[in-house]
Amino acid sequence: xxxxxxxxxxxxxxxxxxxxxxxxxxxxxxxxxxxxxxxxxxxxxxxxxxxxxxxxxxxxxxxxxxxxxxxxxxxxxxxxxxxxxxxxxxxxxxxxxxxxxxxxxxxxxxxxxxxxxxxxxxxxxxxxxxxxxxxxxxxxxxxxxxxxxxxxxxxxxxxxxxxxxxxxxxxxxxxxxxxxxxxxxxxxxxxxxxxxxxxxxxxxxxxxxxxxxxxxxxxxxxxxxxxxxxxxxxxxxxxxxxxxxxxxxxxxxxxxxxxxxxxxxxxxxxxxxxxxxxxxxxxxxxxxxxxxxxxxxxxxxxxxxxxxxxxxxxxxxxxxxxxxxxxxxxxxxxxxxxxxxxxxxxxxxxxxxxxxxxxxxxxxxxxxxxxxxxxxxxxxxxxxxxxxxxxxxxxxxxxxxxxxxxxxxxxxxxxxxxxxxxxxxxxxxxxxxxxxxxxxxxxxxxxxxxxxxxxxxxxxxxxxxxxxxxxxxxxxxxxxxxxxxxxxxxxxxxxxxxxxxxxxxxxxxxxxxxx
Length: 515
Ligand code: MSP
Fold this sequence. Notes:
The structure is a single chain. By secondary structure, the chain is an alpha/beta fold. The protein folds into two domains: 4-309, HUPs (Rossmann fold); 341-489, Isoleucyl-tRNA Synthetase, Domain 1 (Orthogonal Bundle), CATH 1.10.730. The chain is built from 18 helices and 14 strands. It has helices at 20-38, 54-62, 67-84, 98-113, 164-177, 185-201, 230-235, 237-240, 248-253, 266-279, 312-319, 321-331, 342-371, 383-404, 408-429, 431-437, 442-459, 465-475, and strands spanning 4-13, 42-50, 91-94, 117-127, 132-134, 153-162, 182-183, 205-206, 208-210, 226-228, 257-262, 287-291, 294-295, 338-339. The chain starts with a strand and ends in a 40-residue tail after the last helix.
């Protein structure tokens, strides 16, 4: 069981086509999934779409479609996008699927029978964008939702309520005993703070909507006048996709669940979901990993509703999928916001990939071509090698520590320490002079560089899939080496090919190339 790993993205609303924000979370999970697989885990990667709620009905109306036609279309676009970005998800859950509805109704019945759901009246300020009531404290100084920048509606109606208050103290205790459950720490603190606020307010969670206001939802099994509130419906995707309650997937993977979200949906995941799990007698997830926002123009969170979202497909066509993946993973410090701009993208790719890594590879391969006639030299041990080995050992340990906690930016930085050292070794040892003064040392030196590069490329596999394949087909590097890497396992075919394409060319992004 410990060898299993479940990673989930939020299920995205289908009121918009996928934009950079959705793509980032999905790529982040894809990188982690790949990393876990390379580390010998049975990793299951779940993503999907959230198809119910007011927002979807409004979006369908705008296109003159029925909600079902509309969700079929946009869900298809999400699936296609993940295919075109070579995302290797194992399942794609849609909340309109029967398998999902069945589980939502099962859980609702269970909680109702248990007495954890009751009917009551409520008045509050509701943000349609967030699909939830916002407390006064959550509004900005203009009284608007801080994410959607619109005034929430005042809504008063009878609804079914889930006894959130009953489970808050239990959840609080669990958090106290598991300080690593929510990462990074600032979000752990935020959840603890929200628990205090909610306890003070003393309110439970409304989990239904009257059919007279909304029909596009999962019917409440014990009252046909209501449908299920979209968050109560959506959160259950994480177990409906695993065939809860009796499915093998649920038994095998749920105990190893890791959820990845951005901070916009911290409250539903950090409060509603765990209390729902507690009420349903289901084990809490292992971790909740929370990242920040990609900011667009004027440093505002990118989102379809604010019309400031980047269309990444155009960019990827220009710079390639691997470079795009690398940029997003390297640029955002886990937990913090990042600005997206073409100039940071261009600089990052040219600096890190073209100059530092690309030149290192190109120079080393060219020297092997020149000084050993393209034959991969034999490995020799020298003092230089030992210093490098120490740096590699240290960097790789750091890499793995950071990877396991989603700190991909820092993980990548650790690998670039090796790249910098290798570049420095070339500058200091000048193999072109060595070839004149001490030619017998050249092959061993070049082999040391090549092994260093291979370790770099093997570690970068979850980020640079295509480039790694290209590198291993040039060098004949045997690629089926898993994490943790053992440098003795590094083996090559004997000869470099006659020629090869440059792995990391410089990129130029002009206004004309990217719309
Ligand atoms: N349907 C809910 C989630 C239900 S999960 C049980 C939802 N959908 S959403 O389409 O709005 O997606 C929100 C998620 O998309 C964020 O949590 C994040 O993963 C991603 N992002 C959307 N915009 C983003 C940015 N500007 N920056 C980073 N990620 C963002 O909420």
